[in-house]
Amino acid sequence: MRLTTCLLISSLPLFIVGCKSDPQQALDKAADQLQASLEAKKTGAVYEQLHPQFLAQQQNDRAWARQTMAGMFLKYRNIHIVTFRKHSQIDATYQNKGYTDAEVGMTGAEGLLPDAARHYSVRLEWWKEGDDWKLARADWQ
Q1: How far apart, in Å, do the first and last CA atoms of the chain sit?
Q2: Is 7 within a domain?
Q3: Alpha-carbon distance 127 to 110, whole Å?
Q4: Within 13 Å of residue 41, how many CA atoms lie on the same side as its CB?
Q5: Angstrom distance (rounded) from CA 54 to CA 43
Q6: How many domains, in total, are found in the chain?
Q7: CATH code for the domain in which residue 64 is found
Q8: Alpha-carbon dihedral angle through residues 21, 24, 28, 30, given to the nearest 10 degrees
Q9: pLDDT digits over 88-116, tens only?
């Protein structure tokens, strides 16, 4: 019994280290969650991921994002995002900043066939707050 207790106590630091969240994995998960929330048309979930100082295209704030999502979600019953290429990385100098670069295709449809489809090159800048990555900047072309 004593040996078992000693083994459990001595291995506890390994479990704690194993449970510690990996910032890179958390950043990847945040980007995936953003895509899933947009496709599921969950305005509240997307809004929750936006940093209070969020800016899109260097000028549009969180209120603009909410209005744009509401309009898009009303216009299209089905929204799908196809990711052709995606790469997320944490800033080497500022560990509380991360970036996601992606090539995506977005479609909107009232029925099964898309009514609209567009290709975008997207650059997302994430700021870490506590254990969460919040989307602070979004630019696309």
Answers
A1: 64
A2: no
A3: 35
A4: 13
A5: 15
A6: 1
A7: 3.10.450.50
A8: 60
A9: 999 999 999 999 999 999 998 887 777 88
